[in-house]
Amino acid sequence: MRYEIEFFGHENIRSNHKKTIEITKESHLTPRGDCIVGVNASSSCIDLPDKLKNKLRNPETKIHFSIIVADHEFNLEGRGHPNLVLTHSDDIVLRKSDFTCPRTLSVKCDKASDLLPREMVSQLQNPKTKGLFVITVD
């Protein structure tokens, strides 16, 4: 199963958080949002199809994520968790930890936003840059 979310860049994207990656439907971003890699996203946790949400709630589910910007692709993996509620109306957060809240889409991720290639981050600092966030589960 594959689900795609479009998003855009923002001049305040820093992408240097060591524990999370986030995309948001919000259009504004302050420099404090250092895990955010995209704004104006086409979906948040609450918008995901129920079939996908059910798979994400299984701790055995391995989830593959791709962040695609122009010629660059950043890939990471995470796990599902039975406590995922997936109800946040603006955000999607991928976490290295086991912490869950309405914004959490995946836990135990193998990478965070600090590992995004700096060239990709530079492109994402342009609000006209379009990106694609792809969620794939078996």
Give the SSE layout.
Blueprint: E1 2-8, E2 20-24, E3 36-38, H1 50-56, E4 62-69, E5 72-79, E6 91-95, E7 104-106, H2 118-124, E8 130-137
Parallel strand pairs: 2-3, 6-7
Antiparallel strand pairs: 1-8, 2-6, 4-5, 4-8
Detailed description of the structure:
The chain is globular and about 35 Å long. It has helices at 50-56, 118-124; strands at 2-8, 20-24, 36-38, 62-69, 72-79, 91-95, 104-106, 130-137. By secondary structure, the protein is mainly beta. The protein is built from two helices and eight strands. Helix content is 10%, strand content 34%. The strands form two sheets. A four-stranded antiparallel beta sheet has the order 1-8-4-5. A four-stranded mixed beta sheet has the order 3-2-6-7, with no helix packed on it. The chain has a single domain (2-137), classed as Jelly Rolls.
Strand residues, percent: 25-35%
Nearest-angstrom radius of gyration? Answer: 13 Å
Give the strand order, joined by hyphens, for the main sheet: 1-8-4-5
* SS field, number of helical segments: 2
Largest sheet: 4 strands, antiparallel
Q: Give helix % range.
A: 10-25%
CATH topology: Jelly Rolls
Class from helix and strand fractions: mainly beta
Keyword list:
138 residues, mainly beta, Jelly Rolls, four-stranded antiparallel beta sheet, four-stranded mixed beta sheet, 34% strand
